[in-house]
Amino acid sequence: MNKTDSRCAINEEERKKILDDIRVGIWRVEFIPEQLPKLYGDRNMFAVLGAEPWLSPEELYEHWHGRIEPVYLSYVDKAVERLIAAGQPVEVEYIWNHPQRGKKVVRCDATLSPWQEDGKTVMLGLHRDITDKLVNNIWQEDGYHIVDYYKMSLCGKHLIRAYEDLFLVDMEDKAIHPVAYRNNHCPVIEDGRSILEVIAQCVPPEEQEKVYRLFSDESMQEIVAKKGSASVDFRRGENCGRDKWVRGTLYTVQINGNDELLFAVQDIQNEYKLKMLKEEKEDVLYSVIHERSVIYEYDTQLQRLQLLKSDVDNISRSVASAKMPLPKLAERLCTYYVDPSEWSKVKEFLAPESISSCLTEKCKRFLSLSLNAAYSRHDYIKLSVLPSSKAKEKAYLVMELMDQRERLYPILESYIRNAVDHLYCVDLKTGYFFQFIGNTEEYDMPPKEGHNYTREMLDYADRFVPEEDRELVKRQMSPEFIFKALENKQEFSFVESILGRQGEIRKKLVTYIPLDLSRGYVLLQRTDVTDRYHREQMLEKAQLESMTDPLTQLYNRLGSERLIKKALSETDENRNAVLLMLDLDNFKEVNDRFGHPVGDQILCEVARKLKECFRTGDIIGRLGGDEYIIFLPNMLHKTDIHPVLRRVVQKLNIVYKNETESITVTASVGATFCKGQPYEELYPQADAALYYSKKRKNRYSLFEEMKK
């Protein structure tokens, strides 16, 4: 009785049913030199492609190949080339434009046919529509319109529920390709449009220049080269007719094995409003509750002051009138309050053109003045001009009476702000933290307040610290590490590297200062030390260059002497330290017969071989000419020096020859042990041993054995 092979249990009809259900087409492609490619497919293949059944193989191939989304065309063609060249199966996913159903995500599995014919390359494979499966696997929040599901799956990690729009940018032609965007919030951007046209359409003229800079060739090339990112904040036109503040960030992402640029747009309208409100109102609001202040609103068009608030008990009605021209206020301040030595400052500060320039530059200005002797209740009056962010022609003018302590507070705060990027107070036990001072120009900072210090610091490190330093920074910022580091110290500091907006590396000094360590209270401050770090690096480089022989890159005479003296001062008398002097035999003859360039080659070869002979901690230097010096700070036993010296003599046996003649360069070595004597005594001892070896050449001598 015949047994049925279980591997053949599925019959042909069942196989076709499965392929029909999952919409998989089987195909065969033939490539013949100087002929159009031919594509053959089963009935499923024709159905999946939406192709008419009477198409010839050449027409079917063009129907398939011509409908590949243009940005994927080279990717698919290169996959075919790899398959033909290597013979290994390939799998590709790409966007294909179906004649009836539009853009579809398809997956093709291809392999070379085992039955190849002369002059013909045959490929076999499967063609499958995976659009539905891919869409079901993509997180898609309500309100988003997904344009390219495949790229969305590749770029999805960059969405993080924070971005409104995602676009891929073609660096070569600067075209923009939408991936996903929120519905009905801004004009629709057609696929393949020039990024320059999109900026001109969607960004107000006064904001365009900084956005253009982000998409300049230099900017995009730098981002891709560093695999980093860069951001710019700008206003964007909305469908409702209003502008909204957004932050656009260019990322480097991997698409089909290639580096691409992803442009992600984030809504920062609320963030910007709060920032502007804080910048505009914080001083005004403080002045409102300040019991010794007067606040005016100044209109540059009318050139008049409108009184908003006045404390008449402390500031005379003479300067607190409901309406007043600006020059009149300056005159009355000088007459009733300000010391005569300060009058010129008042008139200059309150000149209409001065306040107009303040509005034009959108900057705040302050002036602290001494009061005259007749006004003895307070020491100073502070004048502030604060531009309005809402009305371009208006500013706030604030006057406050201050004593000595109040005058010093802003100076102290300014000093702290200039000294540190940010200052946080942290409760390491509960995880609560808040920002006391923060540089508004810095964007690489933790949140201003939080209840999970550890989580926020880990997130901060993941976003801004380069990968090679990330784990170390995370460990040093952990509560356990900080508690241990501060046990017996007044503070704990370390330098971290931070990625800047343009992908540059900034150096930051992070310092933890205990407030009440028993309760877990510490101050966390960070200071930018990039310039200092670069200066120190330049100084170290200059010092190294001053101590380095430019030809061999060994230490020169000065560098060797300094380092050996330093090592001698740190060497225990019980250790077996050794000083070596080395001179090349026949080197002068090399220069005379073959020239100095050949001599330089040999000197460099000697330097390379010496590095191979000695340890990393040993000091190797070139004194000049063909003389070298080596210091071994620690040898286990004195007898260990002999195999070392034999190895040096054997290794430094260099033969140079040309077409007509050759010469052999060897080395003579002298050595002496250190017994606590200074460098000035060791040097002549090693030199004497070298002189002894030089008499016979190509050997070594020990100063201690010469004496015997």
Describe this structure in words.
38% of the residues lie in helices and 31% in strands. Strands 6, 7, 8, 9, 10, 11 and 12 form a seven-stranded antiparallel β-sheet that branches. Strands 15-14-13-18-17-16 form a six-stranded antiparallel β-sheet, sandwiched between helices. The protein has a six-stranded antiparallel β-sheet with strand order 21-20-19-24-23-22, sandwiched between helices. The chain is flat. The protein has five domains: 8-133, Beta-Lactamase, CATH 3.30.450; 138-267, PAS domain (Beta-Lactamase); 275-403, 2-Layer Sandwich (Beta-Lactamase); 420-533, Beta-Lactamase; 549-707, Alpha-Beta Plaits (2-Layer Sandwich). It starts with 11 loop residues before the first helix and ends with a helix. The protein is an alpha+beta fold and 708 residues long.
